[in-house]
Amino acid sequence: MRTASRPGRTARVLVAALAGLLAATVAGTPAQAEGTTPTGSTAPATTVSADALPTVQVDGVVWSQVVVGDTVYVAGRFANARPAGAAAGTALVPRGNLLAYDIRTGVLLPGWAPTLNAQALTITASPDGSRIYVGGDFTSVNGETRRRIAALDPATGALVPGFAPAVTASVRAIAVSADTVYVGGDFNAVGSAERLRLAAFSTAGQLLPWAPSTGVGRNRDGSTAASAAVSSLALTAGQVVVGGRFGSINGTATSGVGAVDAATGAVRPFAIGQRITNQGDDSGVTSLTTDGTTVWLSAYDFSGPGNAEGVIAVQANGGALVWDADCRGDTYSTFPMGGAVYLASHAHVCSNIGGFPEVTPRVSRFGTALSQAVAGTVGTGTWGNSNFRGAPAPAVMDWYPQLTPGTVTGQGQAGWSVTGTSQYVVYGGEFPRVNGTGQQGLVRFAVRSLAPNKVGPAADSLAAPTVTATGAGTMSVALTTTSDRDDRFLTYELYRDGGATPVASQSVDSLFFKPQTVTLVDRRQAPSSTHSYVVRAVDATGNAVTSPATSGTVSAEPLPSPYTERVVADGATSAWPLGTVTGGTSPDATGRAPLTVPSAVRSQTTGAVADDASGSFRLDGTSSSRMVAGASAGAKAAPSTFSLELWFSTTSTTGGRLAGFGNSSSGSNLTYDRQVYLDGSGRLYFGVTSGSRRTVSSAAGLNDGAWHHVVATLGSGGMVLWVDGTQVAANAAITTAGSYNGYWQVGGGPLTFWPGAGRTDLVGSVDAVAVYPTALTGDQVAAHRRAALPNQAPTAAFTATTTDLSAALDAGASADADGRVVSWSWDLGDGSTVTGAQVSHAYAAPGTYRVALTVTDDRGAVGTTSRDVTVTRPAVWVLAADAFARTTTGGLGTADTGGAWTAANGTSRLSVDGGSAVFGLTAPGNLTAAYLGEVSAPSADLSTTVTLTSAPTGGGTSVYVTPRRVGANLEYRVRLRFLTDGTVRAAVTRLSGTASEALVGSEVVVATGYVPGQALALDVSSAGSGTTTVTGTVWAAGTTRPDVPSLSRTDDTAALQAPGGVGLAAYLTGSSTAGTVVRFGPLTVTAGA
């Protein structure tokens, strides 16, 4: 999509309309209700980066831009350009109101420099990019007469000959089809022909009969406007959409925007022109942009009759509303890209669509972005926009580059134009700086994959956090969020005592106009220890800002037990371990709602939960033993879905309440339900108010003095009561409870009229109370009960399955009777260790290894077991392999498998390059050889290829492949002799203590007509220990391997009947007259038992 952006209220004719603009920016703003922007809207996740990319600068104002390919063509009022980074008045390059630059680099294009004698107000391109059209106030281009419109060559800037319409006043808008140039502006004639603000020309410059006209509208006071100027045009769907300050087109009333037929000029329906009221001297439509389906129009109003500012999206066909971005502050230009719409404006309030509010003194945001998709609705703000209240609205996106307003026009604006490509967004205007750095008039922004992404959270924006001890071992660190110019969500990381790893982190919606408090929690710190904390706010690309440090001291309470940690991990909104009292309260492990503990409650050193040093509470059966959660924080709404969990022990025969929800902060409730209580027989009840008092109950006998675990849940599945890990009662029909505000309470409380109720206040003990916002599952209930009991060590067990040298080990049979196994550690018996429930390991050598498994459960207990695992070699295994995929000189380096190559002769002539081992033979009599001495096998099969780079001379060239090398001068070899007649002869030879080789059997011819560069494939094997059989198979590489070896020989030389290594060698006969190079291809050596 090619778009051209154009000025709105600009230059001579609109000066009067703009005269009061600055006064408008400091006027009071009426209060307004916020619009809605639902969570999970269809706004794109990201915009372009807010990094301002270096761009050529201008010394005036840019009114309009168009992009063709990678070139940005710029129109405005300026005399000079200068490079990015150059101060005003330096490194000037003359440019007469037009320039072009590369959008990828921001660098001025030196070959495009047409000159106008007055400002250009609009610029666009032909659909095929072969012409650049410019309009404005000028009467001369490149020294030739052109009256307010011209066509230019996109490469040279030269005038297109013959295109010279004579327009009588400013041209403010141009739209171009394949054969027609449409223009709009302030004019009343072209040459001597009347044309009222609209005209069309052929691409040759002839005036066409197309002649719709705009009519003046009315001002707010009812007076007739002075102008019906056209400011913008958009060509789509066989029509020309027209924007400006008019009140009619062809005599048909349409306010500020309308559509006409592209062929006839007849008015077409365009609904939005009947819905907005922007017209007259102080209100209008400033720009139109389209993708062929949607038209985005920008608008302004300064105490005129208009009801629209910001941006409105409409259907291209018919002009029906898509959405209204009801921001206040004139908008001059729009550019849709990548799911967003970028704006050049001075928006100062967008709260009517869920965006930033008005502030005093007023702050304008000159570069912003909206979602292309609908994301909410327009609010009820008192802007005179009753036509749009409740209409669909986009989201205001988190993209706020700082464009500083300039002084060139005297209008206090920054950007006047925005356009771009699928990768770049470019702004033009009169701003002197962007993001605080000098960048005048032009700037680029890029998609994240091309941008430096250095714009991060606002510098020095985090205050020192507040650090509070909020429970046993727990420190809560709170601070106010900051913001980022192009990342809405920031991650807040908590660091303790200068550490490099965060101890807690949270991603938080961090809009600059909606600061909130984020609380990060550090747990399990030693009682009474002091720590220093900082918080880092980090954006999506790693830019960060760090707060000053704040210190705090952990409470003296014992650390929470593993049981309490399990409860918190399962989502408890409050968890009271009970047993400790500090300052009249007992801590909530979540830090949210400590229990107020009256004097009659007695601490006990023991309780229901093993490994919990806090103990439990003893209730004395009086109203002075009622505890209330979060009493100082005020009443909260009773939860509709919840779980209430606790442990109790009693021998009472009069019963009483254990816990519940009530409206009193002292426990003397008038409204209460969500009760768990006992009757005199030890029967446990769970009750809620759902139309009436509804209960479920257990069997009697729970007053036996033992500790019992209770969980009562209410949710969509009804009421459920669990005792000691087992469901004992349920009522699926009851899914609601009383609706009122109150507090969770522990201990006694009113039970009047409740079924089975005895006395209100229990004599007994309570421990480990927790509440959840969900109904716990049966598995969670059982796990909590097990976690409270003394821990049983897990049982370690595993199976081993071996294949050759590999063992697959499975610890799935390991188990923990009262929890779960959380880690598995293996000692594999060969010095290796590994972790995981299922692991595999490849041993280096066959044998029996003692494998030990250690398992750890969720409470830290361990269990171990060990057993022997035996692995064997496969029938055939890879002894060595080398793809020669490296580059070395002065040797062959190290093989992929099999260890390092050892040069036996001609080290300097050995190298590796291009997937080959290179053996140089530079002079007659040269022997070049290398061996893999770290491998050894009684039988081996070696495969490679051999290539000579030049034809043999003299006595020829010999190549050796060694399948068994017992020691120096002790080896079996297969020799290939390359002769001058193209014959290749093969033989088995041996070295048996001296450097002189002996033939084992006779030579055979394996190839004829050999030519340099041809690769021969070679398989060589040795097998046997009393008598060794050596075979060789030779064939043309790339053809089918023969089934029958080329030669096979046996030998029983005693010194060679032992395992050995492998090697390669090449020899140039002494009668040779020229050197050569032998290349060995990728090598594979397999061995058998």
Structure explained in plain terms:
There is one protein chain. With 1089 residues, the protein is mainly beta. It has five domains: 4-38 and 53-446, Methylamine Dehydrogenase, Chain H (7 Propeller), CATH 2.130.10.10; 466-553, Immunoglobulin-like; 562-788, Jelly Rolls, CATH 2.60.120.200; 799-871, Immunoglobulins (Immunoglobulin-like, Sandwich), CATH 2.60.40.10; 876-1088, Jelly Rolls. The chain has five helices and 86 strands. The strands form 20 sheets. Strands 70, 71, 73, 74, 76, 81, 82, 83, 85 and 86 form a ten-stranded antiparallel beta sheet that branches. A hairpin with a 2-residue loop joins strand 63 (799-803) and strand 64. The longest helix is centred in the C-terminal third of the chain and has 11 residues, at 778-788. It is flat, with a radius of gyration of 44 Å. Residues 1-44 have low confidence and may be disordered.
List the helices and strands and how they pair.
Layout: E1 4-5, H1 11-18, H2 21-25, E2 57-58, E3 61-68, E4 71-77, E5 80-82, E6 93-94, E7 98-102, E8 120-125, E9 132-136, E10 140-141, E11 144-145, E12 149-152, E13 171-176, E14 180-185, E15 189-190, E16 193-194, E17 198-202, E18 214-215, E19 230-236, E20 239-244, E21 248-249, E22 252-253, E23 257-261, E24 267-268, H3 272-275, E25 283-290, E26 294-301, E27 310-315, E28 321-325, E29 331-337, E30 340-347, E31 365-377, E32 392-396, E33 415-420, E34 424-429, E35 433-434, E36 437-438, E37 442-446, E38 466-471, E39 474-480, E40 489-496, E41 504-509, E42 517-522, E43 530-538, E44 544-546, E45 550-553, H4 562-569, E46 574-576, E47 585-586, E48 595-596, E49 602-604, E50 616-620, E51 627-629, E52 636-637, E53 642-649, E54 656-662, E55 672-678, E56 684-690, E57 692-697, E58 708-715, E59 718-723, E60 726-731, E61 741-746, E62 763-772, H5 778-788, E63 799-803, E64 806-810, E65 821-827, E66 833-835, E67 838-842, E68 847-857, E69 862-871, E70 876-882, E71 888-889, E72 901-905, E73 910-913, E74 916-921, E75 927-937, ...
Antiparallel strand pairs: 1-3, 2-5, 3-4, 4-7, 5-6, 8-9, 9-12, 10-11, 13-14, 14-17, 15-16, 18-21, 19-20, 20-23, 21-22, 23-24, 25-26, 26-27, 27-28, 29-30, 30-31, 31-32, 33-34, 34-37, 35-36, 38-39, 39-42, 40-41, 40-43, 43-44, 43-45, 46-62, 47-48, 48-51, 49-50, 50-62, 51-61, 52-61, 53-58, 53-62, ...
